User: Fold this.
Amino acid sequence: MEAVQYLATIQAYTGIGIGLIIGLGAAGACIGIGIMCASFLEGAARQPEMIPALQGKVFLLLGLIDASFIIGVGLAMMFAFANPLLSVVPH
Amino acid sequence: METIKTAQVYKQMLKWQLIATISVAVIVTVVAQRLGLASPEHAGISALAGGMSAVLGGIAGALIARSGDKKNDAGAILITMLKAEAVKIFVIALLLFLTFKLYNEHLVPIALILGLAASAILSGAAFIGLDKK
Assistant:
């Protein structure tokens, strides 16, 4: 197989990988945020006086849940802009 | 009743994120120097760029989230939080894109990812500070 074909194959599979990283990461983060928001609303409905105490923790946990997605976006950008797999293709 | 405002949470988050970013930048620079890589300073700068993307995204998100402090309705608070999170992710993605585009020549991608990961994950360590209070 020629170098150009190797390059095209690696780029095609990398594209699929990038889509999977972002898509599955977003799905996981959305499920986590959905569960947490539902719990917050339930807690707020049962004990409205707890809302100010829960508010800060919700903000913190939102950031923690999204951390995996953000790391995924960073990795996806690395594969999109500085793909290390392309170095195996002979020039 | 314990009341934790968003600004208080954010101060803790910022502290931990900055500690994580600077620590990773220093460690990456030292390791790159020990391994004899061509540009240890660029590895450190890459780690700083990754960590600071998360820090600046957090600042943007906190500015939006602060407006939710005055609201009493749980639904309204939640919508403000989700808006803040959307802004945070957008800012981080934009800053990462700019880093990859503008600093492409000397960028050390692994260092950038390490800085970003440490900063994003250790923001959750703010819970330690909040629990002490």
